[in-house]
C-alpha cells in the first residue's frame, strides 16, 4: 500500500510541476506546430501590383513603399508607368527604417532615383544585362532612359549608413 501511495504522490508531483507530457507518452505528429520559416516576401505585394503596377518581391523590412511627401528624406524613384493607378503615377517613394536595407522589386521603365541623405545603390536591368548604379546623395541619378540608354527595370534598392 505504501508503494502505491508513493507512486500516486510521484505522479501528482509530476503533473503539478508540468511534467505531465512525460507521463502521457510521446507527442503525436498532429501536436507539432509547423516550422516557422521567414521567406522575406513583401507584405501586400499582390495588392500593390494591382494598384501601382510594380512588383515588390522581398526584402529585409528596412525599405518600405510609402506615400510620397509623407516623410522627408525618402528614396524616390520615377518611372514611365501608365498602368499605375495612383494619383501621382510613376512616382514611388520608399521609407528607410534601418541603418541598412534591401528590397527586391520590379519597377518597369524606371528612369531616375533620388537617394536623399542615404547611401544607396540601385540594380537595374536593361537589354538582358544587370547593372548596379550608386545613387547620388541629395540629388537625382539617371537610370535606364535617364542616362540616355534603353528602358530599364529597377530590380533592387540597397541602402547603408
Number of domains: 2
Order of helices and strands: HHHEEEEEEEEE
Second-tier CATH architecture of the largest domain: Sandwich
Q: Approximately how much helix is present in the residues?
A: 10-25%
Low-confidence stretches: 1-28
State the helix count. Answer: 3
The best one-word shape is globular
Spatial gap, N to C terminus:
74 Å
The whole-angstrom Rg is 27 Å
Query: What's the story with the biggest beta sheet?
Result: 9 strands, antiparallel
Q: In what range is the share of β-strand residues?
A: 35-45%
Average residue pLDDT: 83
Q: So what's the CATH class of the largest domain? A: Mainly Beta
Could you tell me the CATH topology label of the largest domain: Gamma-B Crystallin, domain 1
Number of strands: 9
Protein name: Secreted protein
Keywords: Signal
Signal peptide: 1-29
In short:
With 161 residues, the chain is of the alpha+beta class.
Amino acid at each position: 500500500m505504501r508503494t502505491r501511495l508513493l507512486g500516486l504522490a510521484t505522479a501528482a508531483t509530476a503533473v503539478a510541476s508540468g511534467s505531465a507530457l512525460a507521463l502521457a507518452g510521446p507527442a503525436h505528429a498532429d501536436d507539432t506546430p509547423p516550422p516557422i520559416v521567414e521567406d522575406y516576401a513583401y507584405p501586400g505585394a499582390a495588392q500593390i501590383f494591382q494598384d501601382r503596377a510594380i512588383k515588390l518581391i522581398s526584402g529585409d523590412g528596412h525599405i518600405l513603399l510609402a506615400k510620397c511627401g509623407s516623410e522627408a528624406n525618402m528614396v524616390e524613384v520615377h518611372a514611365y508607368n501608365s498602368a499605375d493607378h495612383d494619383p501621382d503615377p510613376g512616382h514611388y517613394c520608399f521609407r528607410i527604417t534601418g541603418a541598412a536595407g534591401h528590397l527586391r522589386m520590379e519597377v518597369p521603365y524606371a528612369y531616375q532615383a533620388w537617394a536623399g541623405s542615404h547611401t544607396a545603390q540601385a540594380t537595374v536591368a536593361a537589354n538582358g544585362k544587370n547593372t548596379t548604379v550608386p545613387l547620388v546623395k541629395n540629388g537625382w541619378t539617371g537610370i535606364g532612359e535617364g542616362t540616355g540608354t534603353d528602358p530599364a527595370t529597377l530590380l533592387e534598392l540597397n541602402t547603408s549608413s
